[in-house]
């Protein structure tokens, strides 16, 4: 599978034989399907690429790449998040959260509801394996805001009772394991929207409620500063994040 998308649209891996056999057999004799299906838990990034370009199951709102970009780089102006190099486990969880209603979003909820569990795994493995494209420096932010954002990221704010983001999101905002997503290189518009979603209670999938607790202590000043700070850090992931499935 190519790491870069130069060919995301023009290059599609052929359907694996196992899939074709499984689909064919599945249509004629359900009892035999089990033998030919690939391990249902094992993610297949090649099949995930087909999901991303809408080859299998055109999502209700369009194919993933139409919003999330050909390299999974997202779109700052529209607040479509970068997905490239994000951790596999976190991406799967996010899709499940949209499907279950733990994350409510009028665009992503119906899209996630239309995906099977296997498609969620496949498409997550595909995006987790893409290298993060460096975005142009954005958004424009004044030095004071960036400095404040950097301080929030590193040490938080004793006054507001917020701990430093790096405690969980890692040095340089690179993310940690499958639980803590990267923030570095993520579009500020999207990061801001998430912090507001926790404030408003439309994002609740975080089992310990950590992010909601942090977000409600932030004002628009903190939200804008920390989002601008992280957006301007280079995406840290190199596409070699943990093996899917761990
Ligand atoms: C019409 C535009 C659109 C399409 C098509 C689309 N998305 Fe999204 N996606 C969004 C928006 C907008 C958000 C942010 C929603 C929010 O604020 O929670 C998002 C968020 C996400 C997230 C959460 C990322 C994070 O860091 O938490 C994932 C994962 C995701 N999309 C995967 C997909 C996949 C997989 C597909 C295709 C099956 C897809 N999206 C198709 C617009 C789109
Ligand atoms: C104690 C641990 C912890 C700390 C500290 C923390 N976070 Fe988080 N953060 C999490 C967890 C866990 C998630 C994933 C939540 C989920 O799966 O719904 C998360 C998710 C996020 C996301 C969503 C990313 C995405 O792609 O959708 C943003 C934005 C975020 N955190 C911002 C921050 C900021 C800004 C700070 C510092 C002010 C911070 N976090 C501090 C634990 C933490």
How is this structure best described in words?
It is a single chain. With 246 residues, the chain is mostly helical. It folds into two domains: 5-128, Cytochrome c-like domain (Cytochrome Bc1 Complex, Chain D, domain 2), CATH 1.10.760; 143-231, Cytochrome c-like domain (Cytochrome Bc1 Complex, Chain D, domain 2, Orthogonal Bundle), CATH 1.10.760.10. It is built from twelve helices and no strands. The protein has helices spanning 17-28, 33-36, 45-52, 64-68, 88-100, 108-113, 117-128, 143-155, 166-169, 188-200, 210-216, 220-231. The chain is globular. The two termini are 20 Å apart. The site of one heme C has 22 residues, from helix 9, helix 10 and helix 11.
Shape from CA axes? globular
Which fold name fills CATH's third level, the topology of the largest domain? Cytochrome Bc1 Complex, Chain D, domain 2
Q: Tell me the name of the CATH homologous superfamily of the largest domain.
A: Cytochrome c-like domain
Q: Level of helix content? A: 40-55%
- Determine the number of helices (DSSP H or I, runs of at least 4 residues): 12
Cofactors, ions and other ligands in the entry: heme C
Q: How many separate structural domains?
A: 2
The percent range for strand residues is under 5%
Sheet of most strands: none
**What is the end-to-end distance?**
20 Å
- How big is the Rg? 19 Å
Poorly predicted sequence stretches spanning 5 or more consecutive residues: 1-38, 238-246
Average of per-residue pLDDT values: 82
